[in-house]
Amino acid sequence: MSAQPGTDGGFARLAMASEAPRIADLQRAAWQDRGLADILPDAAEVVASWRQAILCPPLATYRVLVALNTERTEVTGFAAVGPSDDPDAEQLDGMVGEFVIDSALQRRGHGSRLMHAVVDTLHADGFIRATWWVTSTDDVLRAFLVESGWAPDGAHREVGTEQGELRIKQIRLHTTIV
């Protein structure tokens, strides 16, 4: 993907295994910002999980994408996509499972480029609708998605730890990608 006017420029593409440590760092930082760092495994396990997701996904339609700066030297964000695992999902429903842009690099076009790559990838894999669970208090992400054509579909859930000490309310957004 090429740079968009008024942005820092950059690209989005499928992730490489060598980028797993940076992806893990971005995820850990984002989860820390959301107060979720305590539920992530240690750093080495997170890196190993991302490396596994990149090299040996359970299905060919599970993908990890990265956003890169203009020089293609720095991963500025990442996304994980695949078939929806929601109980009410149709066979051709894809989902965005994780989406993170480095907080220091937000509002520079990296999120838009990555989101377009996510939708393009899901479409290329044959999905006709995509869903995205968003924390109910994340007004910035929700506004970004709504401005980009996503809309709430009425579904909501609460996720958290098995012990119940952490509970997060989420709403589901969706978009048609045909």
Would you mind describing this structure in some detail?
By secondary structure, the chain is an alpha+beta fold. Helix content is 29%, strand content 31%. It has four helices and seven strands, in the order βααβββαβαββ. It has a seven-stranded mixed beta sheet, sandwiched between helices. α1 packs across α2 (43-55). The chain starts with 10 loop residues before the first strand and ends with a strand.
Distance between the termini: 19 Å
What is the mean predicted local confidence, pLDDT? 85
* Main sheet summary: 7 strands, mixed
User: Which stretches of 5+ consecutive residues score pLDDT under 50?
Assistant: 1-6
Q: Give helix and strand order, one letter per element, not per position.
A: EHHEEEHEHEE
* Residues in β-strands, percent: 25-35%
How many helices does DSSP assign? 4
Strand order in the sheet with the most strands = 1-2-3-4-5-7-6
Structural class: alpha+beta
> Level of helix content?
25-40%
Query: What is the tally of beta strands?
Result: 7
Radius of gyration: 16 Å
Identify the overall geometry: globular
Supply the key terms.
disordered N terminus, 4 helices, 178 residues
Task: Compile the SSE list and pairings.
Elements: E1 11-14, H1 20-33, H2 43-55, E2 63-68, E3 75-83, E4 93-101, H3 110-124, E5 129-135, H4 139-147, E6 151-160, E7 167-176
Parallel strand pairs: 4-5
Antiparallel strand pairs: 1-2, 2-3, 3-4, 5-7, 6-7
Helix pairs in contact: 1-2
